[in-house]
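Hi again,

Forgot to attach this to my earlier email, sorry! This is the prediction with NAP bound. I've pasted everything inline since the attachment limit keeps bouncing my files.
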Amino acid sequence: MRTTAIGVNFIDTYFREGIYPRDLPFVPGSEGAGVVEAVGAEARGLVVGDRVAWCQVPGSYAQYVVAPAEALVAVPDGVDDPVAASMLLQGLTAHYLITDTHRAVGGDTVLITAGAGGVGQLLIQMAVARGFRVITTTSTEEKAGLCRGLGAHHVLLYPDATAERVRELSDGGVSAVFDGVGRDTFDTSLASLERRGSLVLFGAASGPVPPVDPQRLNAAGSVFLTRPTLADYIATADEYRDRAAEVMGALVDGTLRLTVGATFALSEAADAHRALQSRATTGSITLDPTR
Ligand SMILES: NC(=O)c1ccc[n+]([C@@H]2O[C@H](COP(=O)([O-])OP(=O)(O)OC[C@H]3O[C@@H](n4cnc5c(N)ncnc54)[C@H](OP(=O)(O)O)[C@@H]3O)[C@@H](O)[C@H]2O)c1
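Structure tokens for the complex follow:
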């Protein structure tokens, strides 16, 4: 494919820093959108000129990317390239988190950390659409306004984002916490749960959580802890396509909004990482491969 837009994700910084080891040298990035320029002899269902998006394809910070046909998703009219380039990794993540990782049901209150972020914005919308009451956390009043605009019922700014405050707003504790911040929020997340609630630890934007004594889960009210990863929730071609179709369909019919908060030139990818890691961004971030 000739790439037309590239998605930037927090996981790209983990690979760059060596938190997830990879043989050197390597080209970063794992998702993008573009136009099919050539089709392999055994690839089916694709023709030159198709608009496609992909995720989990290493080496996507590039002007041209080679991907297995099954990683490609058709991009419908009405979805522009930057949105297409950044909706799979974060959109599929928000989708599996809300549908398959916890025991909360519609009407329950859930806590989402970093609600103004890439995954966070999508997760708030998907949670609200499923009837959950949403408490979310963020660092600035401007980001808080974005979260409210997406339907969050309560937005807590640090340092007031305490477990006591969450318990107060949820009549004694939330049914599920979706925590992509990790080290800095883990203790608060655990203390915010109701009895038998679910702590879904899906990221480490502030750093990895140190080892946890299982007895803490008992003391917190027989709660559940999971540390899921996207690959296990799109492990089959059918699951990948079904989740992608649902996310893409919601973008097309307007029930889901994906905001590209910033676009950098491909040659400025380092600045994109700096912005993401310094909490300066909202929504998703893309790279423009023509610059
Ligand atoms: N497990 C999976 O399957 C999966 C898949 C995709 C992404 N993830 C994870 O989801 C998380 C969010 O990813 P994203 O790409 O959408 O990023 P993001 O949420 O757009 O950016 C990270 C946000 O985390 C918050 N944050 C809190 N403490 C921070 C700190 N010390 N340093 C940096 N940021 C901090 C900031 O929001 P505030 O300013 O509002 O605090 C920041 O904007 C990441 O941890 C990522 O690894 C996991």
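Residues 2-88+232-288 form a domain with the Quinone Oxidoreductase; Chain A, domain 1 fold (CATH 3.90.180.10). The chain has two domains: 2-88+232-288, 102-227.

That should be everything now.

G.
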